[in-house]
Structure formats: structure tokens, C-alpha cells
Write a structure and sequence with these properties.
Chains A, B: It holds the Pfam family MTTB. The structure is a homodimer. With about 525 residues, chain A is of the alpha/beta class. Helices cover about 45% and strands about 10% of the residues of chain A. In chain A, the strands form five sheets. A seven-stranded parallel beta sheet of chain A has the order 6-17-16-14-12-10-9. In chain A, strands 2-3-1-11 form a four-stranded mixed beta sheet. In chain A, strands 8-7-19-18 form a four-stranded mixed beta sheet. In chain A, helix 12 packs parallel to helix 13.
């Protein structure tokens, strides 16, 4: 799997479209690292399910009673009007919906749907047993080993992280800005970053729901990059948004506005309440999950009211706070169980699910990796379909780091290898009785034909892990993981080549950006 | 759970025996860290099972055919004689056993058994849904942050690690020497270290199967420390050993000798083949697991021939090598699946199972933690009952590190918290509809009665993780995890108080050690 020659010899699907960067680099023989080829991993494990059937019913009932009795505030008059017409009871901004109506709307949701980016070979399937990973999204700050301190993000840093997003085959979609480029004026920031995303990557693109102009610009730029008509654009998702409710029990105007515009044009819709137990949600996991579901499902009902069959997924971002300080914590045991519980309810509702790769750590050290491991494995255990922030996240999402990105990608590569059925195959050739007989009670298996025929692809091949002994490691400079990751990302960025794009398409994108900038971009008073 | 006052107010079982160190320290108000009290965790998760029923049968059949057709070499004439009398076919050292006989022996094994150390409140149960964790065992070398380099272990370092073993409530049993004290002569090393173990800890003790004298000395010292008669000592396990086969398909003399002596005296028996796929076992996971099972089960048959109903468990230590260098790797995807597959077969055979917490990393950094996380979570997923090396292991077991020990204990604390049913409770109080109604669409949950009544015990309370924001972290010195762990272990060791032991028992132990040293200790020509 890790042999770059394989993509040489076997025409990968994307090669028909000019080849991804890894394939191209391998052909020229200077790939920065060896990695397994692009694929859509399928999670073979039965989910971990802490709740029994009564527990699932109890949380479902809790979510429904919240929707029926407390309601959710929709800070968008049109949304309120749509929901009222759909049969909800409204009282100012507060919308209450009964469970029969909610379940009817949920029955309209597709259990699985695709998003097709400008390179159709990078199409992803959201739902079923698929599990897909995206890069870190939206940190306002950047940190790397040489800088050695946190600083507000720049466009250059954002581009660096987009290159890593494109480079790593274990990353299947882009999230929001991998770091917020605060050196770009907010009125035009979305234009420049989306231009960078669409030219530096050919993977599925996200757009922020931050007002009408931004989301309309994003849809138009994605349409241009894909080279398709409006009709083709709306024939199925070409991009997606992710909105967060303002917990407790509130959806803000800009988020709703983007959500509704994307629903109208048949794009991907992910709603992820950020419910910190003990702060914006009950201190108990069941309570926090029930509230999170109520918030998410209310947005799903809105989307279905706008477009029956709209492509939605619900996310979980339920964690706990440090009760001594109020600081948010991530990758905790409580976070893991909340993620698994949400997975059970997502299956109960027949909806695809989003989870995250997260940590509270401030630097890419041991704590960062046990917290991130906990969160990523809980996403696997929960049967999550999209894993946001899966590479590069630090400090509870306030920092993006390229070293952390590379470290996370090593873990993601292992998780994706873990899902390959070859690992637990039990044909007679796998049981290998002949090889055992051949080696007997002495000697070793290195030299057997059984080993020789398989060694090149038998095991996950790391690109960052150091498996040498301590003496060799010390002789090579005694470099800790984060420092090795620094070398890896710089090499990747130095040799990066953007995926191909037709010159005419690029010119059309550039012209669009120029025109919209000349028009003043988007309002910044949202 | 994390509130030390709780152990103040609620008499913990062990307090009746003079109290563990944590309880005692809490009473005096200077616990180095806050931690959850001692308990035997129960794993509530359904195991992850990559194999279907046919896969289980295929590996079982492979293991049986290895035992029937290839056989296992027993480098111990008495073992061969016992197995011949039990019905095995022998040819020199090679013993072949048919599956009917093997399954008959397995049917005699208890599915679950206890080990009772000198402090009966530290009794552990091996089997069922229990999952227990032990400290790192047997590294020849030591590394800590101040030393900054690898060096051969000493008795002082061994004692440091034993203090951590005793201190952390998430550690349930001691393994072998937490670091090999090479400053002690091999002839008397076992006497000094066992004296240290029995006086610095009151948890279950392991003894190496390294020849008759050592194992007999160990049994006698454990008997003395427990203050029981020979008859009481043999009434059920008071200690255990762990033997490794010499893969492929061989059991060495010293290991077998200790194994047989402990079987005869009804002590705990764990057999763990070290089968590196591609080196000492087939390159395929199914083949490596089948061979590992054949090696382990052959020792189980021997134990049952000596004492029907002997208390046995089988371990897994199947991992892969880096096929470029031959270096062993740990915590890989292949390691995780092999552990899960072995768990399935252990349940098929009705045997308790041992797994490990392992990594290939040379220092306690990011790689160390993702590899260790992978291995510990795979132990949980496999339904393992004993997790060896769960704290302190580096460099594929060649280094013990107190910083890594402390870091691992934070992860173990989280894993054990993860298993508490309170996390997924769904009573009406957990769903918290009243609190949701109270907070409504504004405000927060910090101040609600629902939160106030629960906040002290609602979440895992870390002792090492830093959840402060980057600015606060930087203001506090910008200390990375491994450095924080250094401070924690030094504080624990500085304030360590050994668990109580009757003066008469201690004198008897000292006298035994003195006498055996005067006699020359144990032979060193094994």
C-alpha cells in the first residue's frame, strides 16, 4: 500500500484527470514522503454503544421534549416563517415543533449522499460505513516550531496548511479556513481564501455560512472551478457548509442564512452544536447530548422544509469543561462517551454523523496526542462519517499548527490502515501453516518465501514515526517527534505542486475575485 | 471521584488495613496529586471483533494443526515426560498434542481467578469483564528528563518506579522489575528487588521464572509478607509469573521450570509468546496469532497436566517489524488487530487474556503517546483482563522512564473513568430537562442547581494535562508534557510513604534475604 510504485503501475482513478500531486510526484520520483493512495475508508467495526435501547429512547425523548416544550430560537425571520408554515408553533423567535413533525422531516433525509468537487475522482460519500477526514478549521492563530509562539494567522500560513490538506491522501475534504488569515480584510477574505482552496486543492470545499454575499460568492466560485452550469451545480452537492448553533438552543442569523441558501441550491449541510457540558449545556452527558440533538434536529427540520430530501448530517461537539477554571477540555472520557452516544442517536434517526479530532493541549506534545487519539478513536467507535479538525488542531481550536498536522496525519494513516480487511484475513495463505512448518522450532521468517512475497505491503509504513533504537535515534540527533514533523512539513511545502486546473477556469476564477473585490466584497457588519 | 475528601468521608475497604498511601496522604492533606480511588475496573464495552465465526475457526484450526503436526519444543525433560504421560506424542524435545486433548485441558481452566497480595484489599480478579493494569516490566535501561540519556538501570531507579507503581491507584498489580537493577549481582538481585517490591508496595507481585531457586525464594518471600502458612499460600494464587515462549514454537528450561513450580503450588500463570510477525512468526497477522496461540496453549496444557484447574491466562505480544530495518514496531494497526483477534480466541477458549501498553518511541513525546494510546485502546477493545507494561515503557521495552510512567497514568485514569456507567446514565435527572428549561435560550449552566450539585465529580479531573489557554500556559513557563511529568514524579517520590507492614513480618523478610545471600543466592549460569 505504501509503495509509491504501485500508483506508478496501477492507473489510479484520479490519474485520468491529470493525476493528484502524490501520483505526479511519484512519477517524477521526488515524493516528500511515501503514503497510501487516496481512497474512501470504510469502517468495518461494530460501533461502541454505551446506551441500551432504553437509553437511546430516553435521550430521544429528552431531545423531543426540548423541541416540543422549550423550543429553539431562530434569529432569522424567514426561517421562523418557513417553520411556521411547515406546522411549527412559533412565539417570536422561539420555534417549537412536535415529534411527529420532526420524525416526518427526518424520514425525508437521505441516509447517504455524495459531494463532488472540481476533480470528480475526489468525490466523497457521506454516510453508511464511510469515514472521512478533514483538516483543522477556523483557528484564529498559528503556531509552528520555529516561530515558537502563537500569533494571528496569515494568508501565507493558510496556504501552507491548504498545501498539507491537498498533499496528504488521508485527508478527504477541506474544512473552513485552516487558519484565519487576519491579514486579509474581512470583506474580501472569503474570496482570497476560496481562490487559494480551489487552486491549491482539488478536494471537497467547505464554505462558511456568514451572510448572503459570502455564501453566494462561494457557490459561484465552486461552480466556476467545476466548470459546470447552474443546473448541474444544483443536481447534487458540490460543496458543503457546517453551522454551529449558539448553545443553548439558538441559531444565529448568518448561520441560518447560509444554511437556507445552501439548502435551496441542494448543497451539503452539516449542523454541529457546540455544547460544553456544564457551560452551554447540562453537566450530565445525557443532558448535553439531548440538547445538542434538539439544536441539530431543529436545523434539519428547517432544511427539509426548504428542500425535502436535502443532504444533511448532524455533528457532535459535546465535551466538558474543567470545573475548576471553566476551561474547555477535549478528548476526555466524557467527550468520548458523548460522541459514541451521539452516534447511536444518529443511527436511530438515520442521519450521517460528523465528529472531530480535538485536544486542549497548547503544543504538539504527549498530551496533544493522547487527547487527539482519544477523540479520533471515539469518532471511529461512534461510526462517524465525517471527522472534522482531524489534522492540525491545538489549544481547543484556537491554534493551527503544521507540526500537529503532520503528526495527526501519521495517526490518520494508521487508522485508515487499521480498517483494511487484509489485516484480519484468514485464508490458508494467511494462516501460513506451510511457512510455520518450514521454519519449525529454529530460525526466523525473514527469509521464507511467504514473507518475501508479502513484506513490501504487509504493514503500515510510517513517514514520521522513528522505530530505530535509542542509539541510532541519538546518533541521528535525538530528534523528538514535533521537530521531525517540522522537517516533514517544510519538505512537503517546498516540493508542493498544485493539482492541475484549466487555464480558462483559473482565469474565470481570477476575474470573479477581481470583480467582487472591486464591488467591495461582502459586508462586515454581520 | 477525584475529590480526596471522598476517601476521607467514605471508609475505603483498604482503610481497614491501615489505609493505602493515597488515603493516608489525603488525611494528612499533602497528596502529590488528586486521583480516583482504587477499584477494579469493569470493561462495559462489547469487544471489537474483526473476525467472523469462520475466521475464529480458521485461526483455531491453524493453532491446532501447529500443535498436532509441527509441535512445540519443550527444553525441559520433566515437562516432556509429564506431557507424554498426559497423552502427547513426543520426539526428543518436540511435543505434539491433538486437539481433543488440548480442548479437554482448556475445559479444566477457570474462566476467572483471584490473586490476593499481602494486603487483601488489593486483591485482583483476572478474567470476566475485569481489566487490570500493571507497570512497565523488565527494561534493562532507564531514562529520565534530567539524565537525558539512556543508561543501565539501578536499584535506586527500580525503587523509584516501584513507588510510582504503589502510588498510582490506576495501577493494579506489579509486573517484573520495572527496570533491571544491574548494580545488583544477578545471584542476589531477585532477593533485593522482591524485598523492595514487598515493602514499597502492597499490590499483587510477579516473580520471574528464572530457575528453581529464584522462584522458590519468591514464593517463600510472598508467603512471609502475607503472614500465611504454606497451606494457606497454596489455597489460591498469592502471586503470579509471566513466561514468554522462545518463538518460533519453543519453551526454554528456566521459564518452564518456574511455570511448573508455580503450577504445583497453585499460583497465577500467564504465558505470553513474543511473536513478531515477519521475524519470529508468519508475516500475516492470522498466521502470527495462530502460532502465538499454539505456543501459549501448549504451556496451558502442561499446567493443567500438573494441576487440573490451574489458574492460567494467555497473553498476546504479536506485533510487526519495520520490514526495511527489521526493527520491532508497537502500537501499530497490525498490533491492534492482532490483539483484538487474540481476544476473540481467548474468549473462544474460555481463558483470561493479557495484553500490553507499548510503543517504539525513544522519548516520551507525541509518537510515544499515539503508539501507547493505540496499544492501550486495543487492549480495551480486545476485552483484555491484564494489561502489562501499561505505564512507563519506551523504546520497545528497552527503556523505563518515570516521565512516561506519569503520562501513561493520566491516560489510564481516563480509560478507567471512561468505564464508569455514570457517563452514559439516562435517568430523568441525567436528561436534565428542568435545567434546560431553566436556562432556556440565554445564559449558561454554571450557576444552575443541577450543575452545582454535580460539578465536583461530573468529569475526569486530570493531574498532568494542562487545560489552560496558551497565554496562561506560556506565562507559567511554557512547559511541555514530559517536563510537567518530571515535576510530578519527583513530587510523588519525595512525599512517598510505604504502605504499612508489621515489624515482625519485615524482620522475617530481612532475615530471609540475609540468609539466602549468605548462602550465595541463586546460580547465575541459567
Amino acid at each position: 500500500m505504501q509503495d509509491p510504485k504501485r500508483s506508478e503501475d496501477t492507473p489510479a482513478p484520479r490519474r485520468r484527470r491529470g493525476g493528484g500531486r502524490a501520483g505526479a510526484a511519484a512519477r517524477r520520483g521526488h515524493a516528500a514522503i511515501e503514503q497510501a493512495p487516496w481512497r474512501l475508508p470504510v469502517n468495518p467495526d461494530r460501533p461502541v454503544e454505551p446506551l441500551d435501547a432504553e437509553g437511546v429512547q430516553a435521550i430521544h425523548d429528552g431531545a423531543m421534549r426540548i423541541l416540543e416544550e422549550v423550543g429553539v430560537a431562530f434569529l432569522h425571520p424567514e426561517a421562523v416563517a418557513i417553520l411556521r408554515r411547515a406546522g411549527c408553533e412559533t412565539e417570536g423567535e422561539v420555534v417549537r415543533m412536535d415529534r411527529a413533525m420532526v420524525m416526518e422531516a427526518l424520514a425525508q433525509c437521505p441516509a447517504q449522499w455524495d459531494i463532488t468537487p472540481r476533480n470528480p475522482d475526489r468525490r466523497i460519500t457521506v454516510g453508511g460505513r464511510h469515514i472521512l477526514f478533514g483538516n483543522v478549521s477556523s483557528p484564529p492563530n498559528y503556531w509552528d516550531m520555529e516561530l515558537g509562539r502563537k500569533q494571528p494567522g496569515t494568508r501565507a500560513q493558510c496556504r501552507t496548511l491548504l498545501k498539507l490538506t491537498q498533499y496528504f491522501e488521508c485527508i478527504h475534504f477541506t474544512g473552513g479556513y485552516p487558519v484565519e488569515p487576519v491579514d486579509l480584510h474581512p470583506s474580501v477574505r472569503h474570496l482570497d481564501v476560496l481562490y487559494d482552496k480551489l487552486t491549491l486543492t482539488d478536494k471537497v470545499t467547505h464554505a462558511y455560512s456568514l451572510g448572503a454575499e459570502r455564501i453566494d460568492d462561494a457557490m459561484e466560485m465552486v461552480r466556476i472551478a467545476s466548470g459546470v452550469s447552474d443546473e448541474a451545480f444544483e443536481s447534487g452537492p458540490k460543496m458543503y457548509t457546517n453551522i454551529n448553533s449558539t448553545s443553548p438552543l439558538k441559531h444565529d442569523y448568518p448561520m441560518l442564512d447560509g444554511w437556507m441558501r445552501l439548502a435551496a441550491r441542494n448543497q451539503g449541510l452539516v449542523v454541529t452544536p457546540f455544547t460544553l457540558a456544564g457551560a452551554m449545556a447540562p453537566v450530565t452527558m445525557a443532558g448535553a447530548v439531548a440538547q445538542s440533538l434538539a439544536e441539530a434536529l431543529s436545523a434539519v427540520v428547517l432544511a427539509q422544509a426548504i428542500r425535502p430530501g436535502a443532504c444533511v448530517a448532524i455533528g457532535t461537539f459535546t465535551s466538558n469543561v474543567d470545573m475548576k477554571t471553566g476551561a474547555p477540555a477535549f478528548g476526555t472520557p466524557e467527550y468520548m462517551r458523548a460522541t459514541q452516544m451521539t452516534g447511536q442517536l444518529a443511527r436511530f434517526y438515520g442521519l450521517p454523523m460528523r465528529a472531530s479530532g480535538v485536544c486542549a493541549a497548547n503544543v504538539p506534545d504527549g498530551q496533544a496526542m493522547w487527547e487527539t487519539s482519544n477523540s479520533l478513536w471515539s469518532a471511529v467507535q461512534a461510526g462517524a462519517n465525517m471527522v472534522y479538525h482531524a489534522a492540525g488542531w491545538l489549544e481547543g481550536g484556537l491554534i493551527a499548527s503544521p507540526e500537529k498536522f503532520v503528526m495527526d496525519c501519521e495517526l490518520l494513516g494508521q487508522i485508515q490502515r487499521y480498517m483494511e480487511p487484509a489485516l484480519w484475513a484468514t485464508t490458508p495463505e494467511d494462516i501460513a501453516l506451510d511457512a510455520v512448518r518450514e521454519v519449525g522450532h529454529e530460525g526466523h521468517f525473514f527469509g521464507t518465501g511467504h514473507t518475501q512475497a508479502r513484506y513490501a505491503t504487509a504493514f503500515y509504513q510510517p513517514f514520521l514515526s522513528d522505530w530505530t533504537n535509542h542509539e541510532a535515534w541519538e546518533a541521528a540527533g535525538g530528534v523528538w517527534t514535533a521537530e521531525r514533523a517540522n522537517r516533514v512539513w517544510k519538505e512537503i511545502v517546498a516540493s508542493f505542486e498544485a493539482p492541475p486546473m484549466d487555464a480558462a477556469v483559473r482565469e474565470e476564477l481570477e476575474a470573479f475575485v477581481s470583480r467582487r473585490k472591486a464591488e467591495g466584497g461582502a459586508p462586515t457588519d454581520f
